[in-house]
Amino acid sequence: MKGPRKISLPETYTNRRGETFEYTIHDHEIGDGRDYWLYTIQVKHETWGFRAFGVHATKQAFPTTALAEHLARTVALEAVQQRLEQATATGFPLVFPTWFDGWFVI
């Protein structure tokens, strides 16, 4: 198994509280035989450091790499940004996984 492959350039997101985050999206090529795709959206905050959000998408719902990658870059990223809206300078509250039809964000 290879290490994660970065599929986005570093970008920034600032929430309503003024907290700024730098993030990148990574594809974790887990090999054939698995029935899901795995991505991480890796977020860095100046004060509290790094946090990785896992994006798990089933191959039944997203049968091609292109579809799964599009999910990670768009709707899954929006789900992570919604979580970052809760963040403060000291962190953010514990939240449960966000479940959707055929995919989820941890």
Describe the structure.
The chain is of the alpha+beta class and 106 residues long. It has one domain. 18% of the residues lie in helices and 39% in strands. It contains 2 helices and 7 strands, in the order βββββααββ. Strands 1, 2, 3, 4, 5, 6 and 7 form a 7-stranded antiparallel sheet that branches. A hairpin with a 7-residue loop joins strand 3 and strand 4. It starts with a strand and ends with a strand.
Shape type: globular
Based on secondary structure, the structural category is: alpha+beta
| Pattern of helices and strands | EEEEEHHEE
Radius of gyration: 14 Å
- Strand runs, count: 7
Which band does the percent of strand residues land in?
A: 35-45%
How many separate domains? 1
Major pleated sheet: 7 strands, antiparallel
Helix content: 10-25%
The number of helical runs is 2
Task: Indicate the multimeric state.
Answer: single chain
Could you give the distance between the termini? 22 Å
Return the average pLDDT rounded to an integer.
Answer: 87
- Unreliable segments of 5+ consecutive residues: none
Short description:
It comes from Paraburkholderia dinghuensis. This is WGR domain-containing protein. By secondary structure, the chain is an alpha+beta fold.
